[in-house]
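Entry type: protein chain
Record version: 2
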Amino acid sequence: MSIEPTHRGPAATDEAPGQPRLCRRALFGGAGAVAAAAVLSACGAEADQSGADGTSAAPTTPPEPGPDAAVVAAAADIPVGSGVLFADKRLVVTQPVAGDYRAFVALCTHSGCNITGVEADEIVCDCHGSRFRLDGTVSKGPARKPLKARPAAARGADIVVD
Protein backbone atom coordinates (compact mmCIF):
# COMPACT_ATOMS: atom_id res chain seq x y z
CA MET A 1 0.00 0.00 0.00
CA SER A 2 1.36 3.36 -1.02
CA ILE A 3 0.65 6.57 0.86
CA GLU A 4 0.72 9.85 -1.02
CA PRO A 5 2.46 12.65 0.88
CA THR A 6 0.08 15.45 1.90
CA HIS A 7 2.86 17.89 2.76
CA ARG A 8 4.69 19.56 -0.07
CA GLY A 9 8.21 20.23 1.01
CA PRO A 10 10.78 22.49 -0.63
CA ALA A 11 11.48 19.97 -3.35
CA ALA A 12 7.83 19.77 -4.42
CA THR A 13 6.96 23.27 -5.64
CA ASP A 14 5.15 24.63 -8.66
CA GLU A 15 7.68 27.44 -9.06
CA ALA A 16 9.71 27.69 -12.19
CA PRO A 17 13.44 27.23 -11.69
CA GLY A 18 15.24 30.54 -11.04
CA GLN A 19 12.05 32.38 -9.98
CA PRO A 20 11.95 33.93 -6.49
CA ARG A 21 9.47 32.52 -4.02
CA LEU A 22 6.85 34.85 -2.52
CA CYS A 23 6.96 34.30 1.20
CA ARG A 24 4.57 35.56 3.86
CA ARG A 25 7.13 38.10 5.13
CA ALA A 26 7.46 39.68 1.66
CA LEU A 27 3.68 39.77 1.21
CA PHE A 28 3.03 41.56 4.52
CA GLY A 29 6.03 43.85 4.04
CA GLY A 30 4.64 44.97 0.70
CA ALA A 31 1.20 45.56 2.20
CA GLY A 32 2.80 47.68 4.95
CA ALA A 33 4.60 49.79 2.36
CA VAL A 34 1.32 50.41 0.50
CA ALA A 35 -0.39 51.45 3.75
CA ALA A 36 2.47 53.81 4.64
CA ALA A 37 2.27 55.41 1.19
CA ALA A 38 -1.47 55.97 1.65
CA VAL A 39 -0.94 57.65 5.03
CA LEU A 40 1.81 59.89 3.68
CA SER A 41 -0.25 60.96 0.68
CA ALA A 42 -3.12 61.90 3.01
CA CYS A 43 -0.71 64.02 5.09
CA GLY A 44 0.42 65.79 1.94
CA ALA A 45 -3.14 66.98 1.25
CA GLU A 46 -2.78 69.60 4.00
CA ALA A 47 0.38 70.97 2.44
CA ASP A 48 -1.43 71.34 -0.91
CA GLN A 49 -3.72 73.93 0.70
CA SER A 50 -0.82 76.20 1.58
CA GLY A 51 0.43 79.12 -0.44
CA ALA A 52 3.58 79.11 -2.56
CA ASP A 53 5.61 80.39 0.40
CA GLY A 54 4.43 77.54 2.66
CA THR A 55 1.92 79.68 4.55
CA SER A 56 -1.78 78.99 4.76
CA ALA A 57 -4.28 79.79 2.06
CA ALA A 58 -7.05 82.31 2.70
CA PRO A 59 -9.80 80.95 4.93
CA THR A 60 -13.39 81.13 3.83
CA THR A 61 -15.50 83.95 5.22
CA PRO A 62 -17.18 82.74 8.41
CA PRO A 63 -20.98 82.72 8.56
CA GLU A 64 -22.89 85.63 10.03
CA PRO A 65 -23.25 85.57 13.80
CA GLY A 66 -26.51 84.21 15.19
CA PRO A 67 -29.18 86.18 17.03
CA ASP A 68 -27.57 85.44 20.42
CA ALA A 69 -24.14 86.80 19.44
CA ALA A 70 -22.38 88.84 22.11
CA VAL A 71 -21.38 92.47 21.75
CA VAL A 72 -17.58 92.64 22.06
CA ALA A 73 -16.79 96.23 21.05
CA ALA A 74 -18.04 99.40 19.47
CA ALA A 75 -17.45 99.45 15.72
CA ALA A 76 -15.65 102.78 16.13
CA ASP A 77 -13.05 101.05 18.38
CA ILE A 78 -11.81 98.74 15.60
CA PRO A 79 -9.52 100.73 13.26
CA VAL A 80 -9.75 100.20 9.49
CA GLY A 81 -6.66 98.31 8.27
CA SER A 82 -5.85 97.02 11.77
CA GLY A 83 -7.46 95.31 14.73
CA VAL A 84 -7.74 94.98 18.49
CA LEU A 85 -6.84 92.14 20.85
CA PHE A 86 -9.38 91.47 23.60
CA ALA A 87 -7.18 89.32 25.84
CA ASP A 88 -9.88 88.89 28.49
CA LYS A 89 -12.16 87.39 25.82
CA ARG A 90 -9.33 85.53 24.04
CA LEU A 91 -10.45 87.22 20.86
CA VAL A 92 -8.93 89.36 18.10
CA VAL A 93 -11.25 91.57 16.05
CA THR A 94 -9.97 93.13 12.82
CA GLN A 95 -11.30 95.40 10.10
CA PRO A 96 -9.18 94.74 6.99
CA VAL A 97 -11.29 97.14 4.92
CA ALA A 98 -14.06 99.49 5.97
CA GLY A 99 -17.13 97.56 7.14
CA ASP A 100 -15.49 94.10 6.92
CA TYR A 101 -15.15 92.87 10.50
CA ARG A 102 -13.37 89.61 11.30
CA ALA A 103 -12.96 87.81 14.62
CA PHE A 104 -10.45 85.11 15.56
CA VAL A 105 -9.67 82.97 18.56
CA ALA A 106 -6.58 84.60 20.10
CA LEU A 107 -4.51 81.41 20.16
CA CYS A 108 -1.61 80.86 17.77
CA THR A 109 -2.06 77.82 15.56
CA HIS A 110 1.62 76.92 15.90
CA SER A 111 1.69 75.79 19.52
CA GLY A 112 -1.36 77.31 21.18
CA CYS A 113 0.35 80.37 22.69
CA ASN A 114 -1.74 83.46 23.36
CA ILE A 115 -1.76 86.08 20.62
CA THR A 116 0.10 89.08 22.04
CA GLY A 117 -1.32 91.94 20.00
CA VAL A 118 -2.03 93.64 16.70
CA GLU A 119 0.74 95.75 15.20
CA ALA A 120 -0.39 97.88 12.25
CA ASP A 121 -1.78 95.33 9.77
CA GLU A 122 -0.57 92.11 11.45
CA ILE A 123 -1.77 89.91 14.30
CA VAL A 124 1.28 88.97 16.37
CA CYS A 125 2.28 85.97 18.48
CA ASP A 126 5.53 86.73 20.28
CA CYS A 127 5.85 83.15 21.57
CA HIS A 128 7.71 81.90 18.47
CA GLY A 129 7.39 84.87 16.11
CA SER A 130 4.33 83.90 14.05
CA ARG A 131 2.42 86.71 12.35
CA PHE A 132 -1.00 86.66 10.74
CA ARG A 133 -2.72 88.94 8.23
CA LEU A 134 -5.93 90.72 9.19
CA ASP A 135 -7.92 87.96 7.45
CA GLY A 136 -6.31 85.36 9.78
CA THR A 137 -3.94 83.79 7.22
CA VAL A 138 -0.28 83.25 8.07
CA SER A 139 2.11 85.96 6.91
CA LYS A 140 5.18 84.61 8.79
CA GLY A 141 5.74 81.21 10.39
CA PRO A 142 6.42 78.96 12.14
CA ALA A 143 2.59 78.76 12.19
CA ARG A 144 1.23 77.12 9.04
CA LYS A 145 -2.53 77.20 9.64
CA PRO A 146 -4.73 80.30 9.74
CA LEU A 147 -6.25 81.53 12.98
CA LYS A 148 -9.58 79.96 13.90
CA ALA A 149 -12.29 82.34 12.67
CA ARG A 150 -15.43 83.25 14.61
CA PRO A 151 -18.58 84.71 13.02
CA ALA A 152 -18.48 88.51 13.43
CA ALA A 153 -20.49 91.45 12.10
CA ALA A 154 -21.48 95.02 12.79
CA ARG A 155 -24.96 95.44 14.22
CA GLY A 156 -25.70 99.10 14.49
CA ALA A 157 -22.77 100.72 16.28
CA ASP A 158 -21.61 97.43 17.84
CA ILE A 159 -19.46 94.49 16.77
CA VAL A 160 -21.04 91.15 17.66
CA VAL A 161 -19.29 87.78 17.69
CA ASP A 162 -20.62 84.25 18.14
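Comment: The longest helix spans residues 24-48.
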